[in-house]
Amino acid sequence: MNIHEYQAKEILRAHGIPVPPGEVATSPEEAEAIASKYGGPVVVKAQVHTGGRGKAGGVKLADDAADAAEKAAAILGMEIKGLTVEKVLVTPAEEIASEAYVGIVMDRASQADVFMVSSEGGVDIEEVAASQPEAITKLRVDPRYGLLPHQAMGLAWALYDDVKQVRQAASIIRKLHEAYRAAGATLAEINPLIVTPEGEVKAIDAKMNIDDNVLFRVPDVEAMRDTSAEPPAETKARDAGLSYIKLDGDVGCVVNGAGLAMATMDMVKHYGGEPANFLDIGGSSNPDKVVTALEIITADPRVKSILFNIFGGITRCDDVANGIVEATNRIEIDRPIAIRLTGTNEEEAVEILKQAGFAAMTDMDEVVKEAVSLAHGGSD
Amino acid sequence: MSIFIDGSTRLVVQGITGRDGSFHTRQMIEYGTDVVAGVTPGKGGQMFDDSVPVFNTVVEAVSERGANTSVVYVPAAFAADAVLEAAEAGIELIVCISEGVPVQDMMRVLPFVEERGARLIGPNCPGLITPGVCKVGILPGQIVAPGPVGVVSRSGTLTYEVVFQLTRAGIGQTTCVGIGGDPLIGTNFVDCLEAFEADPDTRAVCMIGEIGGTDEQVAAEFVRDRMSKPVVGFIAGRTAPPGRRMGHAGAIISGSEGTADEKMRAFRECGIAVAELPADFVGLVQAGL
């Protein structure tokens, strides 16, 4: 799960990391009110789930409250990488003497959390990693012992020469690790970590990604989910226990299992079609899930044909067949359906579908070709 | 022969009285697996289906019944501790079926399991099956057949698809292993390839990968440097958009890393025959045998 900058900053603040104040506005008037409260220049920052906001013009400096309203008006409603900006963060502009980067990420290869720090902050860290890898210091955190104090100091010495800043940075690094662990994050970044002309070390931007699997344990973090930042169909799917991602094609796909769902999408493309979505109905045998899946897919106006690819293991084919029949009774499905079912209770499923007027296939390649052909307007 | 499980496997089912645990225990027994014990805290002393003794702890299942392998069906929130308990009790092979285990839990589990010399398969996996002998997990027994091909996969139902096509074409398997779709897993592709290379009955290997991470690339180098047996590979997720988690927690393309194209290129460069479609496995395996 992605959270916004202002939410990540709340988490960091709660763990004692120095973060300048800030409030969220959804209108220019609100932005003006917040800016006048702080007085002086402010930064108006788009809150969207993507990087590269600055380059896209989503981060602007405002001289005063009236200017903040103007800048907010320009940013709100703007599209950044396909996402519409619904909120801006208004925060006092900080004077900056230097900028650094501090991040921690779950690293699959080393099966541990890895810290990365660099004195080259305020820029895209992937670019730094590519152009001057020696400017990045890495540390694998041993999962058995956690981040040790001297390790945090070592990372901080890679950023600063003055022990005053080093101690502040080491404290921030340790607190960042605590915040990362407590929130169940797979990534937490401060970019930039700044030093003010007075020598204070502060976090003025923050990013966190949360492991979806940990959300049951951190309800206050789950409450940060911004459903306005995702397509409504994805919210509906998640609530029903389905895994759904909308794509741009016209063949709607309903599959059990993530790997088979991906392979099905790939095969649609292979046979000249374009998948409209990724959808995994999961391993359970609940006809309601099939109904919800069909509701979501038929709500997408681009979908021209619907493809079912079910390999029954735990999932029982007759349950899926019942779900298809039930869905067609409950909602009007005005697009052609191609169905493939094989495995557990396949014969019962084929019979159920036949009674309801559907044909069922047993071969994956055949059904995918059929669905692509239906999307292109033909039936054979 | 086979890898990891065979006729000497003595299985304890952790979570045997739960909905999934009880269903799949019956399936495993029916397939011929020697299920020697179950564990559900508070239900020690009971008998499962009048045939399998239930204990409160894994330690008892090991000392009373000689269990050497465990399968974990407990809910995600408790799965990590169930794996730790099995490793602590001296279980040699732990298969964790549970889906949705937090990655920070797995990070603590992996070094613990390794230090105790146990092998973990999963989590979020369908388990493994040695056709005609033993199955541990949830793979459907009716789609496999004994034969010379080893199968290793990050997926569940996609594995069933491929294995079913092999079986239908008369190509049987030594062992089929689902290693799981999570970013942090115990046994990986290389571990399975190494075991298949050492297994005298395995004459070819099918490897089913997907987007996300670099395990397939590492496995490809292993095949090039250390394997004499032919390997056929497939990667799911060529049409997946970057940055989105495709169902499996581990199936996410970050930056330019973990794409299907990159993995298929690594396969080709390392002498692995690439199946463009699941249906291509049969022909490529036949050519390799």
Short account of what is shown:
The complex is a heterodimer of chains A (380) and B (289). Helix content of chain A is 37%, strand content 24%. Chain A is an alpha+beta fold and 380 residues long.
Characterization of the model:
The complex is a heterodimer of chains A (380) and B (289). Chain A is α+β, with helices and mostly antiparallel strands and 380 residues long. Chain A folds into three domains: 21-92, Dna Ligase, domain 1, CATH 3.30.1490.20; 98-222, ATP-grasp fold, B domain (D-amino Acid Aminotransferase, Chain A, domain 1, 2-Layer Sandwich); 231-375, Succinyl-CoA synthetase domains (Rossmann fold). Chain A has helices spanning 5-14, 28-38, 65-75, 125-131, 149-157, 163-183, 219-222, 232-239, 258-270, 287-298, 317-330, 346-355, 364-375, and strands at residues 23-25, 42-46, 59-62, 79-80, 83-84, 88-92, 98-107, 112-118, 136-141, 185-195, 201-203, 206-210, 243-246, 251-255, 277-280, 305-312, 337-343, 360-361. In chain A, the strands form five sheets. In chain A, strands 7, 8, 9, 10, 11 and 12 form a six-stranded antiparallel β-sheet that branches. Chain A has a four-stranded antiparallel β-sheet with strand order 1-6-2-3, covered by helices on one side. Chain B has two domains: 11-121, NAD(P)-binding Rossmann-like Domain (Rossmann fold, 3-Layer(aba) Sandwich); 140-288, Succinyl-CoA synthetase domains (Rossmann fold). Helix content of chain B is 35%, strand content 22%. Chain B has nine helices and 14 strands. In chain B, the strands form two sheets. Chain B has a seven-stranded mixed β-sheet, with helices on both faces. In chain B, α3 (76-88) runs parallel beside α4 (103-115). Chain B starts with 10 loop residues before the first strand and ends with a helix. The chains are: A alpha+beta (380), B alpha/beta (289).
